[in-house]
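Below is a filled-in request sheet from our internal design queue. Each sheet records the structural input a requester submitted and the sequence that came back. We keep these sheets so that new team members can see what a complete request looks like end to end.

REQUESTER: design group, bay 2
PRIORITY: normal
MODE: inverse folding
CHAIN LENGTH: 248
BACKBONE (tokenized):
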């Protein structure tokens, strides 16, 4: 199907989403944000394009690992009271929804992608050995957001995974919520890629590339912004076909 400029962007419709919370896997929602200044939350932090973090495999290989998105909630001003022009504005925390997706390439050459609003969420126990839990929140504050699970036992069947995030209504710009993508490998410090972009109208960001290097994980921060999925795909050479933001 033909790629249409802006069609991916059109599919990112505004949504009335409540604030996400940490899921049982961690690294999700406003409650999962990690500050690099917090000594009680260690991690490997990447915030500029081209920075690299490495996880070496043990003799038994890699365990299953999870990838999630977290963000700092945005403060906004809200007028209060019937005679609002006579009252001071109050500062509140507004919920924001940021969703996670990925493009993948397998060692055998198979390629694909998955995201919250698509129909393909992958699989843990068969190719592509990557599973996206789906956007599980239903307006309930306690509901978890999506996470990506990678089957560590089949990591050697995977060549690379491009992680990306896209933002819905709820924040004026990326810098106001400072999103993070967190890669959590059991027994290792979280690898945290933080988006520090200044004001940008582009709603899609290619955040990081995960590559299989001699059985280990090489995480490289990318931090590039695109008007849609098709444009991002072309930049990284996956060769998928997109329509209305969904892989075809």
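RETURNED SEQUENCE:
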């Amino acid at each position: 199907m033909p790629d249409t400029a802006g069609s991916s962007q059109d599919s990112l419709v505004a949504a009335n989403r409540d604030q996400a919370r940490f899921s049982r896997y961690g690294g999700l929602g406003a409650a999962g944000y990690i500050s690099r200044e917090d000594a009680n939350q260690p991690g490997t932090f990447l915030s500029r394009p081209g920075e690299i973090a490495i996880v070496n495999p043990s003799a038994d290989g890699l365990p299953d690992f999870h990838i999630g998105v977290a963000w700092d909630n945005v403060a906004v001003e809200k007028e209060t009271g019937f005679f609002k022009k006579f009252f001071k504005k109050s500062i509140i925390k507004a919920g924001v929804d940021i969703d996670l997706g990925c493009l993948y390439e397998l060692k055998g050459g198979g390629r694909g992608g998955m995201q919250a609003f698509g129909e393909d969420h992958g699989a843990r126990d068969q190719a592509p050995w990557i599973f996206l839990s789906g956007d599980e929140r239903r307006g309930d504050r306690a509901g978890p957001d999506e996470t990506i699970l990678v089957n560590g036992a089949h990591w050697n069947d995977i060549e690379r995974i491009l992680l990306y995030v896209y933002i819905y209504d709820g924040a004026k710009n990326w810098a106001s919520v400072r999103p993070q993508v967190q890669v959590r490998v059991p027994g290792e410090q979280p690898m945290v890629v933080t988006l520090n972009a200044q004001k940008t109208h582009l709603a899609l960001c290619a955040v990081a590339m995960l590559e299989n290097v001699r059985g280990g994980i090489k995480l490289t921060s990318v931090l590039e912004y695109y008007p849609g999925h098709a444009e991002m795909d072309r930049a990284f050479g996956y060769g998928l076909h997109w329509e209305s933001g969904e892989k075809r």
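SHEET NOTES:
- The domain at 7-78+89-247 is CATH 2.60.60.30 (Lipoxygenase-1).
- The radius of gyration is 18 Å.
FILED BY: M.R.
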